[in-house]
Amino acid sequence: MKKYTIVNFNRDFPDDDACLEWLKNYLYPGGIFCKQCGMVTKHHKVSKRPCYACARCGNHIYPMVGTIFEKSVTSLKLWFYAIFLTSSTRCGISAKQLQRELGVTYKAAWRMFHAIRSLLQEKTKPMSGEVEIDETYIGGKKPGKRGRGAEGKTPVFGIVQREGNITATVTPDLKGSTVYPVIKKRVLPESMVYTDEFPVYDKLNSEGYKHKRVHHATEVWAIGDAHTNTIEGFWSMLKRGIDGVDHAVSQKHLQGYINEYSFKYNHRNDEKPMFSTVLEKI
User: Fold this and answer.
1) What is the tens place of the pLDDT at every residue in 88-115?
2) 14 and 27 in contact (C-beta within 8 Å)?
3) Residue 278 included in any domain
4) Residue 52 Cα distances to 16, 61, 69, 77, angstroms
5) Conformation bin of residue 87: beta by default, left when phi > 0, alpha when psi is -120 to 50
6) CA distance 192 to 226
7) pLDDT tens digit string along 43-61?
8) Which of 4, 105, 109, 120 would be 98's cystine partner, CB 3.0–4.6 Å?
9) Does 67 share its domain with 110?
């Protein structure tokens, strides 16, 4: 992946006008179609306003309308810088850190934080080949039972294609009636599925999948090519990131955090910078 530093950012986006010009060019790559004139016409930036005027009739268009920037009073460069900060690390950045970096109120930073994160939800193509399926629980340390069945924690169900993408979803439970519709939607039949010994996976063969498993309860982590190390690595990264950056995440917003980590994992091998990948989700 090509590096994109703060030097590159300040060169490409020195002010609000540069950010607006990028947004206009990205949204209207073939030029702006003027509804009044009924054709693509030249448009000029209107001084001190976030809009462009048609050179023929003067009709205005506002590139920020319909984006996360619409109706925001925060500087457009600060928005772009927030996207840069969010995309610069594998584990993201907290709203509190955004507040400190941008010099805005915590309320503004929180809104920007979640607006940017909303861009990172994307659909993945159905998986095939070698696929790992696993589940985990997200929540703070609490007394009592750990692992499956722990109270006060939120179950998360994940599927990853080896050397491919991952999808992870917050679920109300891990019953067969909950997880099998997800599996059927996201994994093609005849795929080789690797799991641990969790009984909910007993029916994978009868559902049309090839199935191998390892028994973590007996400390068997791999038998030949049968393992869940790929998705276990993702869970570890997710939990370390939440613990180290965000410290605590509510169940209400957990899916948004998972979407961010999944997005960055799925685009880890992109040639262009992560900042460009996120920005183009606008």
Assistant:
1) 887 778 889 999 999 999 999 999 999 9
2) no
3) no
4) 14, 5, 16, 18
5) alpha
6) 10
7) 999 999 999 999 999 999 9
8) 109
9) yes
Q: 239: which residues sit within 8 A by CB, 6+ positions away?
A: 136, 138
Is there a single domain that holds both residue 210 and residue 249? Answer: yes
DSSP class of residue 243?
I
Q: Which domain holds residue 83?
A: 6-121
Cα separation of 179 and 148, whole Å? 15
Backbone dihedral region for residue 196 (phi beyond 0: left; psi -120 to 50: alpha; all else: beta): beta
Co-location of 100 and 203 in the same domain: no
Q: What is the DSSP string of 81-118?
A: HHHHHHHHSTT---HHHHHHHHT--HHHHHHHHHHHHH
CA distances, 59 to each of 38, 53, 220, 258 (Å):
12, 5, 68, 42
User: Do residues 260 and 152 share a domain?
Assistant: yes
β-bridge pairing 166-170 and 222-223 = unpaired
CA distance 265 to 235: 11
Sequence letter at residue 104:
V
| Residue 36 sits in the same domain as residue 115 | yes
Q: Which residues of the chain have pLDDT under 50?
A: 143-144
Tally of structural domains, the chain: 2
Sort strands 130-138 and 192-195 into parallel, antiparallel or unpaired.
parallel
**For residue 127, which of 103, 162, 92 has the smallest C-alpha distance?**
162
